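Budget justification, computational time. The allocation requested in the original proposal was used primarily to generate structure tokens for proteins on the priority list. As evidence of use, we reproduce two of the resulting records. The first is shown immediately below.
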Amino acid sequence: MEKMIQALFNNEVEAFTGLQALQQLDMTKDISLGETYVLSKDETGKTSIRSAKDKSEGTGIISGGLVGGLLGLLAGPLGFIVGLAGGMYAGSASETLHAEEISNYLDKVSANVPNGKSVLVAHLWEDWETPVDAVLKPISVDVRRFNVHDEVFIPAKTELSKIDDAIKVAETRYLEAHGAEKADWNATLADLRNQRERLQKNLSSNADQLEKQYQQWIDDTQSSAPTSTSENKKAQLASRLEEQRIRLEQIKRNR
């Protein structure tokens, strides 16, 4: 099942140890790993965010174009883009990240990171929770997860439906109104239509990213398993592959 993992660590070194552990689980096909981010706060409260998009790229400081894929969707569809009071700092160069580049999701996570602590954020697919818990819980303070489909995409679609309903009401009121009231409803309509356009654009754009992520997961899942793979593990991978294919088709149909 597709999840977002948040794990709190006492320091950045342990957070990156946790990240390496997830990458190892990905290599042994115990999970399918997507975007990963490490958010760290120093003792003064300044936050740095580092990203490891894949195992070959390593980990680097995020600069312009902060988030993509799932986190890009979290940044966009429900009017989520916000900034941090006093600015947000990335890496040793203390480069301020502009408000429009900061996902509200990362913002909220960062706001709850105690000074001197680090959080690992990972987008992944897990068949069961034990592998991730086994590597993260012994070295972390707390591990939390949420279901991406239920807690991201369904709310986004619900919000789009609410905007459509509001537009229908506003159109009726506009036709019934006169004078200044008509101008007010016209402005309301324009605002609602802009909201709908932005949301539809974000959903479409991030569907592209998610399709690519799922296709990568599918390719990785169906690639040759380690020679020591047990029959139970092979059956588990076959089940994962089928579920990922079904989810990919759902994403394509819902575009």
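The second record produced under the same allocation is shown here.
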Amino acid sequence: MLGNGRKRLGNTRSLTRSLGNGHRVALHAIMIKPGSILMNRDAVRPEYFQPEGDPCPGSWISVAHNQTPRLLEANLEAGGWTFFYMAKAITGRAFGFTPAKVLEAALGRLITKAKQQHCNALQIDSVATRTFLGIPFVDVDAHPRQIQKGMTFNG
């Protein structure tokens, strides 16, 4: 629980819904969790950043990596890559009753904000669900990132 009634979906691979009999069903193929990296499909990226899962909104993809953030940055630097981190977090929020569409809308808003900052990637910080007057919504917090060769920001 995050406070103010927010529930953290931290270790889940996708949003799920209870069927009321103790079973849960996955509602979306976009697999995000804290630490997930979404990247513009057309951006140049290291060979070990391979697409995973289904495409995200706006021609972005979730990229597979199995490294801690510190190790990831060290490996990128060793290969001549820079992984710029924008200090201000951004939030994508969407309301609705269909969790898959709500998550997609929230991700779409995040991607739009990242593009406005001329960044080609997002690092997900948290995914949380809440309700307001009985209407469910999702908040996805992330930091815009820029992955590129060289030390000068080319966004």
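A brief technical remark on that second record: The CA atoms of residues 5 and 74 lie 37 Å apart.
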